[in-house]
Design brief:
The protein has 2 domains: 36 residues, no CATH class; 79 residues, no CATH class. 37% of the residues lie in helices and 16% in strands. The chain is built from 4 helices and 2 strands; from the N terminus they run E-E-H-H-H-H. A two-stranded antiparallel sheet has the order 1-2. A hairpin with a 2-residue loop joins strand 1 and strand 2. The chain is flat, with a radius of gyration of 22 Å. It starts with 5 loop residues before the first strand and ends in a 27-residue tail after the last helix. The C terminus is likely disordered.
């Protein structure tokens, strides 16, 4: 959250009854912020983002916000991410996903790969010493 807020959810067994649990939810705000309001994004704004997927959210957001004042940059970003995710996300694990994407681009000839000396403590995504990304 913009207010550097924190959401904590804890689950504990009830004392003397292990079959029941107590769920506690805490929300803490570190900075004051404008109260939340409905941030509905008009269908026309979604259509504009969809027709400009070749771009990125940074140049798209000001255009959308100029016409629809209630739309926030984060909404444009999330809409764009959801619409483009199938092109670049190949799994929940970011390292595995990035490795698969690199392999895909290398096999299609869209990128060049270089052999580099990798210092200790650095993870290499692709190359002879990297993991197999075909999981």
């Amino acid at each position: 959250m913009d207010c550097w807020g924190k959401l904590t959810i804890s689950i504990d067994e009830l004392e003397g009854n292990p079959d029941q649990q107590c769920i506690t939810i805490k929300i803490k705000h570190k900075k004051w912020h404008i109260p939340y309001f409905d941030k509905f994004m008009p269908a026309e704004a979604v259509e504009f983002i969809c027709s400009n997927l070749y771009s990125t959210p940074t140049p798209l957001a000001p255009i959308v916000q100029h016409q629809y004042l209630q739309v926030m940059h984060k909404q444009v970003y999330m809409a764009w991410v959801c619409m483009t995710m199938g092109e670049w996300k190949h799994g929940e694990d970011q390292m595995v996903s990035a490795g698969k994407l690199l392999t895909e681009f290398q096999e299609s000839g869209d990128i060049d790969m270089w052999e580099l000396d990798i210092p200790d403590g650095v993870v290499q995504l692709h190359g002879e010493s990297s993991q197999s990304w075909t999981n």
